[in-house]
Request: fold
Amino acid sequence: MTIIEVGREETSGLSLRQRWSHYFAILYTIIMVIISLNLRDSILYATIPYENTQAGIRVFYPQNWLLDTDGDYVFRVRDMGQRDFKTTIQVQIIPISSESTVRNLLDNLAFTRFQVYAAYRQFPRPEITLADGTIASAVDYTFVFNNTDPFLESLPSVVVGQDIIVLQRGQAVVISYQASADRYDEFYPIFQNFLADMEL
Reply:
């Protein structure tokens, strides 16, 4: 003898309102993630304009970096929030003769830096094109930085730098980027944005 039970089938499906609530929650989460990423980028990459009409340059530098115009350069900014080497972007204008070449300038820079930086090494790169179409020469280099502060005990750190050189109007514009080797790639997009917005 076989017993057959006839009962109501249980329904485990979601109602239409519950489904729409799940879709809305997922969509809301995606929108909030996109907004938070945009806010983060706008804070990280916020810039301040700087213009020097005498030198003929206009740049945008990171908002939280320290501006310095009192050296043998037109413009320098540094990220003072770092404990070791401070990431630096600098613009220097060097008068040159009509017969000077980029090679002469690179040799002079190397000679000067050999006397200032420990273990300085230079690595020429191919020419690059700036955002305004200007052809510029580029060179990478490394040196060892030793913190001279007697109150901070730290090991020497390797610094990686890049110079972008533009010859124009009887002068050479040298745009330099320097950062510790472990942070070079992290801050390099800031330098690329700086170059893209720069007006010479």
